[in-house]
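Comment thread on ticket #2218

A.B. wrote:
> Attaching the input chain for the structure job we discussed in standup.
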Amino acid sequence: MPRIPCSPPRIFAARWLFRAACTALLCWSAASSPAEEAAKGQIVPALELPASLPWDLAALSTPPAVEWLDDAAPVRSLLYVGEPFQGHATRVFAYYATPASIGGGAGDRKSAADMSKGPWPGIVLVHGGGGTAFAEWVTLWAKRGYAAIAMDLAGCRPDPESTKKNAVVRLPDGGPGQGHDAKFDTIATPECSDDWPYHAVANCILAHSLLRSLPGVDPARTAITGISWGGYTTCLVASLDSRFRAAVPVYGCGHLSDNSCWLGDFARIGPEPSARWTQLYDPGTYLPACRVPIFFVNGTNDFAYPLDSFMKSHADVQHAAKNIRIQVNMPHGHEAGWAPAEIAAFIDAAVLGTPSLPLMGMPVVDERGVQCRVAAGGPVASAALVYADATDSGPINKLTWQVVPAEVGADGALTAPRPPADAPAFFFTVATPAGLQVSSPAIVVTPAQ
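C.D. wrote:
> Ran it. Output below, let me know if you need it in another format.
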């Protein structure tokens, strides 16, 4: 099969204008909303998407061909057709589980007998660097009442001959690996089809199209969450695929060439390729187009996705509901990344209509101290002001953080003593009576070093 070129911007612009005109004509003539179009299965591209968009969203809206490797186990396994790579067709390995396949789920929301019948909400689970499709992860979500799919984004499948947990082997028709060369260096070639970010995004959207088509899945109630590079990919997919009802990127964000653990990779490939990579694959390019409710989850000291780039990504979202959870010294890893109960709470609220997490406004400093307001959701049991120690002078993800109790007013107003004037960053956190925690946007006073 032919390699996929990254067309020049002029061609992309013409293609985009044509696509936008067709979309507008379709919506006008049929008097259907983007939500109605999404329910039919088609992605409705946001007009804010850049002209340099390398993905064919109309093609990715169609469910891919699938081969079931095991359709009887509690956790099924399958291969589906992905995008061409280096001139050949590819297939992607995935795990899939439902409340019926594992024998019930959803906790107290419905009985196991009810949940075994569906229709179920669906979720796409996106692994991070060094990861793969995790059977444990799809089982976790199936127990919560979801039809869950998790795919390997490195051209691999489980190794049947290994006794090591999550050991993998290359698929003969797999896509690119997940090394730094596939993530960054291939930007120097004129094709997109050898770039890992291109395939990662496409394969997530294809997995979503497949999930929506499966028996028992409610195509109007789907979500996506991803960890680390999977969080990065989730930011991209949520900005492109209008059919999702919720997205939760964990750790991963955009503005990676501004500050991240990959600054050395950008320096190695050089300024022009770095600018091209940012244009094509940085979430900061696409998040302004995001229309999917999105919940950003990260830690104060993440080694890969530091708080300044993370907050820029949060600020990029202007057209969707958004919330944020910043945990002091949150560990970085797959299990740590899927552990927060707030992830399911946010997604449940979006797709099932359960109570929403508290939503906090921007902190404001004045002569009385620092204030913030709980704008929606609740109730709130406790609150705190978190600020970086002013005596620290290192990078933003190496700072020491102090936690000070805040007063919770009856009107949802939070008040705390003013942090030191030279504190590099600060934010509020609140906890619900159930112990669920969310944050205000962080105020980053000084840039990372």
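A.B. wrote:
> Thanks. Noting for the ticket: DSSP finds 15 helices and 20 strands in the chain.
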